[in-house]
């Protein structure tokens, strides 16, 4: 199944992606976990971090992020989650917003 790429930002760069707050939270968790540990979190790690009772909830979030071109992984292989350029940009935007909010407080 192939999804069309969303429109790109006016001056190139990653596609403009609209994510829910929870989807951004999941991306940030994956990025920070991967940076801290040197490998991607498992679905079980994600489920435990967010307190979700079902592994289907994790799968639904990961699939939505993949459809939005923010995340990729190798099917059938453990700990292969990787943020795409669009996913990395979404994490950077969210962190910049949080820092800007903290400096104005």
Summarize this, please?
The chain is mainly α and 105 residues long. 55% of the residues lie in helices and 4% in strands.
Model description:
The model has no long low-confidence stretch (mean pLDDT 87). The protein starts with 20 loop residues before the first helix and ends with a helix. It is mainly α. A two-stranded antiparallel ribbon has the order 1-2. It has helices at residues 21-37, 43-50, 55-67, 85-104, and strands at 71-72, 82-83. The radius of gyration is 14 Å and the shape is globular. α1 (21-37) packs across α4 and α2 (43-50) packs across α3.
Secondary-structure map with pairings?
Elements: H1 21-37, H2 43-50, H3 55-67, E1 71-72, E2 82-83, H4 85-104
Antiparallel strand pairs: 1-2
Helix pairs in contact: 1-4, 2-3
First and last CA, distance: 45 Å
How many H/I helices? 4
Percent of residues in β-strands:
under 5%
- Helix and strand sequence: HHHEEH
Unreliable spans are: none
Mean pLDDT: 87
> Which outline best applies?
globular
Class derived from helix and strand content: mainly alpha
What strand order characterises the main sheet?
A: 1-2
Q: Report the sheet with the most strands, covering strand number, pairing sense and barrel closure.
A: 2 strands, antiparallel
Estimate the helix proportion, in percent: 55-70%
Number of DSSP E strands: 2
Computed Rg: 14 Å
């Amino acid at each position: 199944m192939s999804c069309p790429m969303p429109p790109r930002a006016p001056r190139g760069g990653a596609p403009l992606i609209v994510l829910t707050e929870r989807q951004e939270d999941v991306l940030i968790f994956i990025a920070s976990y991967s940076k801290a540990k040197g490998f991607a979190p498992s679905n079980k790690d994600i489920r435990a971090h967010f307190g979700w009772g079902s592994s289907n909830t994790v799968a639904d979030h990961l699939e939505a992020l993949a459809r939005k071109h923010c995340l990729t992984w190798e099917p059938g292989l453990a700990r292969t989650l990787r943020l795409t350029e669009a996913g990395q940009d979404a994490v950077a935007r969210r962190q910049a917003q949080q820092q800007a909010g903290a400096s104005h407080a």
